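Protocol step 4 of 6.
Sequence for Oxidoreductase domain protein (Cellulophaga lytica) entered exactly as in the expression construct, tag removed. Do not edit the line below.
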Amino acid sequence: MSKKIRLGILGGGGDSLIGVLHRVASFINDNYQITGAVFNPNLEDSLSFAKQIDIPTNRIYKDFDTLIEEELKLPAEERIQVCSILTPNFLHFPMAKKLLENGFHVICEKPMTTTYEEAKILQATLEKAGTIFAVTHTYTGYPMVRQMREMIKAGAIGDIQKVDAQYYQGWINPIIHEKDKRASTWRLDPEKSGISCCMGDIGVHAFNMIEYTTGMQIKSLLSDLNYLYDDNKMDIDGTALVRFNSNAKGIIRASQIATGEENGLTIKIYGNKGGLKWEQENPNYLYVMSDDKPLQVYKPGHAYNSDLSLDGTKLPPGHPEGIFDAMANIYLGVARAVRGEKYNDGEFPTMLDGVRGLNFIQSSVTSHQKGNVWIDLD
Ligand SMILES: NC(=O)c1ccc[n+]([C@@H]2O[C@H](COP(=O)([O-])OP(=O)(O)OC[C@H]3O[C@@H](n4cnc5c(N)ncnc54)[C@H](O)[C@@H]3O)[C@@H](O)[C@H]2O)c1
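Step 5 output, structure tokens:
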């Protein structure tokens, strides 16, 4: 019997953006075997994709209810153990809930659900289930982001006084100005996407990066969102001022109409002893700034990095690793948790991150709708 963890995949078909990232990530580190799937809502498409990527077709199911029903008929040692949810947002909640209720471990794409209420229900479901649940805030898997977290925890930059997370993309600009185009993308459809597009899709990553790296929780926010057109129901750009319980303050800037930007996620954390800066498009450089020393650049794989950071590199310094490796690090953490092995709580974002994310998204929309007022997070 293979020692690999039996992985099921929901969504992530050949037509998807994120499917390949999860498939490759699950393969790196040799922990998982894709055992069953519903890659697409149409069975023929799912089967043909399974053949294309050479996965046995006997456990490709017509929908996720059937996947659960049929898998439960199998002996536990053959059954899918972990299921990854890579579908459009509105399916995350029903899929995750049913999987948890039936004893499966879950890896779920973000935003975890489409509403904060659903997120809290899912949290209660997980408490009963007692299985492992991860939310794929992929960027937390980068070695230099992990290094940031560990340096801040060790006091390297002192007390945090300013945070600035910016996530700028431009991909909605060619879509938003034409009525037909903006009506035909699922991310701009509240039924499929949830209450927010920009804050829900990428602002939430920026929010998570702040809480992940600083270890602090944002206490309140004031947001200003942009929809550009009256018939567009979803924010495509937004700014949120954020406050903590301490005197630290900061800003989350997110946009999908920052024309020409690709995947421009930048996080800057400033303390009274120094600052740290990291950019997703150059992920192997962590900039360490101070008042009285020249700029330092930390890179992955060197012994000066923390254990958590070093655990996320596989090759000696100078061999660039990227987004596939970052996601693989999250899958590695989940594999350890599923096997009951020791793992660091920074290895993968959990249900708490998912719930906090929905609290952020909901609060951003509410703040804007109420006329840009301060809203407390729970
Ligand atoms: N972690 C990240 O950095 C990151 C990046 C991109 C997307 N995402 C998230 O991943 C999810 C998917 O995004 P995407 O860009 O890949 O979307 P997509 O539209 O490109 O792909 C969605 C896939 O789900 C399939 N699907 C739809 N309905 C289904 C159903 N009922 N059963 C099974 N499969 C079904 C589609 O056929 C398609 O293969 C979203 O929640 C998104 O927010 C996360």
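Step 6, annotate. The pocket of nicotinamide-adenine-dinucleotide is lined by residues 10-13, 15-18, 38, 40-41, 86-89, 91, 109-110, 136, 138, 201 (CB under 6 Å).
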